[in-house]
Amino acid sequence: MLKDTFGREINYLRLSVTDRCDFRCVYCMAEDMTFLPRAQVLSLEESEQICRAFVELGIKKIRITGGEPLIRNNITHLFNQVGQLQGLEELTLTTNGSKLTELATSLKLAGVKRLNISLDTLDSEQFTELTRFGKLEKVLDGIQAAKRAGFERIKLNAVILKNRNLDQVPALVNFVLSEGLDISFIEEMPLGAVVEHGREEEFCSSAEIRAVINREHPLQESAVKTGGPSRYWQVPGYQSRIGFISPHSENFCASCNRVRVTAEGRLLLCLGNENSVDLKDIIRRNPGDIEILKQAIVNAMANKPEKHHFYEDDAEQIVRFMNTTGG
Prior knowledge:
Blueprint: E1 2-3, E2 9-10, E3 12-16, H1 44-56, E4 61-65, H2 75-83, E5 90-95, H3 100-110, E6 112-118, H4 124-131, H5 136-149, E7 153-159, H6 169-179, E8 182-186, H7 199-202, H8 206-214, E9 220-221, E10 231-234, E11 242-245, E12 258-261, E13 266-268, E14 276-278, H9 279-285, H10 290-300, E15 311-312, E16 315-316, H11 322-325
């Protein structure tokens, strides 16, 4: 089992396979966002080698993210390869849902157990405004396709901004309750320079979101623990989990059990710090030598910080966007 210098067991890898999306999200709203040259992005073979190395080191859960991972050519091949790794207990996916009508069944057959679908609003006009090119109906159709495919759990992720989509919280909760889905409401993480809103004035805490929900549905704290940063609540009479990811107001660093690998192969030890190791460079300088890769991962754990540092006085401290980091 991988451990860091603070004794935390690391058993969860989030791997980004592309920095590109077919439409933007709340995390990536800057006008001047640029994308990586293709040669700088991990190949699917390199991504599989990284997954294999982590599993051999004791990682039990892998989440494939992006950008939008399902726009990668031949992406189901990667899911098939990773899904067969001995020792891996759970393979999951974060997606914006736009390709699920085509790929949900193939992903389920490849071994994907759970889906996280990013959805910040159920207002079709607001959805197109937020995403520039997205169509809400396509995402909703994708959710239904995923339900038919039979995934163990399907969870929506919603980033809530006070003056942009806070009014959508009741509709999102009613939707997941009626559809038998889960949802996590996420405090905005200040990654990259965003000029369309001021982060402090738009910040909405998990406590504020719970207060909005409680006006219509009384929440009861749940004993469910998934090993991730979400803290779950439930509405009596429903099975849906209503989670809150609170990197600011309810810091969860003490129990952090995960690391990330970006689309360009940088092993990030913390979402809110710039400590990283270039795994792509190690792979390309030592083709086929998984032991060197594994040793680099083990060595990197010594640099995993105790906690994150996101921003001060509304100024971003982390310059990369979530499309590169991985959602």
